[in-house]
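Example record

One chain of 181 residues, shown exactly as stored in the release files.
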Amino acid sequence: MYETIVNQASEKVHTGLAGIDSSKLKKLRSAHLKACFSLIDEMRHKLEFVARIKGVSFIDDAASRSPMSTWYALETVDGKVAWIANGAAAGIAKASEFKRLRALVESKVRMIICLGDSELYVNTFGDLTNNIIQVETMEEAVHKAFYSSDENMKVLFSPAIENGISYETQGESFKHEVNEL
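Predicted structure tokens for this chain:
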């Protein structure tokens, strides 16, 4: 049974499991299942809803520190997205890993906001969007995303790259700035 769930690895399975009340899961009889799901309360900064302000939803995915983790986040989030990512010079990260995101960027992402150097994003996605912005602070990133977003858009903070700052620190900074709007 567990292997079937793991092997499916579909959005619906993950979304369904994430939506189950964790307190109910902890009452399960099977010690193995209980152990598997006991960490749900600790899953912070992974597709965590932060707030909805004037129709714009903010999602903290600070734990996504690789292009593939960000791919999953973009695939999971419905609708149009303003993506806040960690910046990096093109030589720092493997551009080939970012090319896997191209189809999602083309279909969903309306704006990419880079915390730091935007060279990698311009080189990889510049032909898909001319809306790639470089900022220096999380406050700037959240403000640019919010004031440039239409109603029903999602602002997704999904770094895609390590930058030397812990994901917990960046996630808390993102949530703080959202709550300051």
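Notes: The longest strand covers residues 109-115.
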